[in-house]
Amino acid sequence: MDYWRAGLDSVPERVWDHPGLRVLLLADNALTHLPARVAALTDLRTLDLGHNRLTGVPPELGALPALTDFLYLHDNRLTALPEELGGLDRLTYLNVGENQLGALPAGLGRMASLVELRARHNRITALPATLGGLRGLRELLLRGNRLSALPDTLRHLGELRELELRENAFETVPEAVRGLPLLRRLDLRANRLRAVPPWLTALPSLEKLDLRWNDVRGGEDTLAALRARGCVVLR
């Protein structure tokens, strides 16, 4: 059911007459509230609530057993997410970017099927250690937050291919990155880095390292070794 740019300020009553819905698109409206009745849409696979004015989402959102494909909550006015969201253990894509989140709930670590997590442009200062349980995660996009460290548990993200840490507050490359055997792209642009650790050469799959807009000094041997094996290094 498609209500994209429909000029809505509330979810249409007609939605609740179709409990067998698989796709519900409510993006680019003026919604401020998502009713708890959303839990009745037990066949829903994709829910798009991006580009609205939501200030919160109900805990019942985490009780949708068939939500497997996409959950878009980006570009709203969310300041927190319910712990119950972690109940979406079949969901593969979650976008909570462009909100006002100061943290991510620990419950997200239970989303065992998650492949891509986008939390760009929030106010996040630290990540929960439970995110290390997302063993199938391939992309973690955290640009434009207030992070200065990563939990050590992220070294368990053995499937991670892309880690975007651009525009945060890192003064050193996080040690958790050291244990990521499949990492291909590491974006550290516009942080507060002053050095690069020699262990970056031990990342066997690294194809692109972006260090621009930092004050990195030295580390020429490390960067040369990366370039010699075909890794693109930007600084």
Automatic annotation (TrEMBL):
PROSITE patterns according to UniProt: LRR
A Pfam family of this chain: LRR_6
Superkingdom as given in the UniProt entry: Bacteria
Keywords: Leucine-rich repeat, Repeat
InterPro entries referenced in this protein's UniProt entry, alphabetically: Leu-rich_rpt, Leu-rich_rpt_typical-subtyp, LRR-SigEffector_domain, LRR_dom_sf
Keyword DNA-binding attributed: no
Protein name as catalogued: Leucine-rich repeat domain-containing protein
